[in-house]
Amino acid sequence: MTTQPIEKEIRRSADQAQEAAENTQVAAQHTAVAAKVTKDSADRRTELAADRTVFAAERTYAAWVRTGLAALASGIGAKKLLAGVVPEWMIIGTGSVLVLFSAFCFAAAVWRQVFVGTPPPNPDVQRLPPYLLVAMNGFLVLVALSALASIWFGPTGGEP
Asked: What is the pLDDT of residues 116-158, one digit of tens each?
């Protein structure tokens, strides 16, 4: 007679264990789905961060080119604007420094864009092709060097 209550208790414990196992199984499935969503979300944030890195590098490239163009225009403009105001050697020196700085900026722009160090994770956006950067900035360096030759060998109109 004492075995009936014990058997009932064992049966009830087995049912509870079975129910707990089923609940654990459902919780594990929910956890797996949540982990996948979290992983996908983290991956997407990483991709977006890589995109932002590419765009930041392009902004830096544009800043170098913009600075180089401003220095080139200033170097060429110095020849005309300073004529008759300062001695000729000062006109040639100022224009030369500005034009050489512009050539440096054009070269630095390509260097910073092509040699980025550690590449970002695979971004969704495409980077500017390096051959295009080298060709465009190479042309700008040639323009700067011809402006330099013009400053050195062209008439300045400055005071002797």
From this structure: 776 666 777 787 788 888 899 999 999 999 999 988 888 765 5
Residue 147: Cβ within 10 Å count:
22
- Cα-trace Rg, the chain: 35
Three-class secondary structure assignment of the chain: CCHHHHHHHHHHHHHHHHHHHHHHHHHHHHHHHHHHHHHHHHHHHHHHHHHHHHHHHHHHHHHHHHHHHHHHHHHHHHHHHCCCCCEHHHHHHHHHHHHHHHHHHHHHHHHHHHCCCCCCCCCCCCCCCHHHHHHHHHHHHHHHHHHHHHHHHCCCCCEC
> Distance between CA 152 and CA 142 in Å, rounded?
15
Answering whether pTM is above 0.85, one says: no
Q: Within a 13 Å sphere around the CA of 57, how many CA atoms are in the beta-carbon half?
A: 25
Measured distance CA(159)–CA(90) in Å, rounded: 10
Neighbours of 36 (CB within 10 A): 10
Distance CA(53)–CA(117), nearest Å, equals 12
Instruction: Give the count of alpha carbons within 13 A of 59, CB side only.
Output: 6
Is the Cβ–Cβ distance between 50 and 121 less than 8 Å? yes
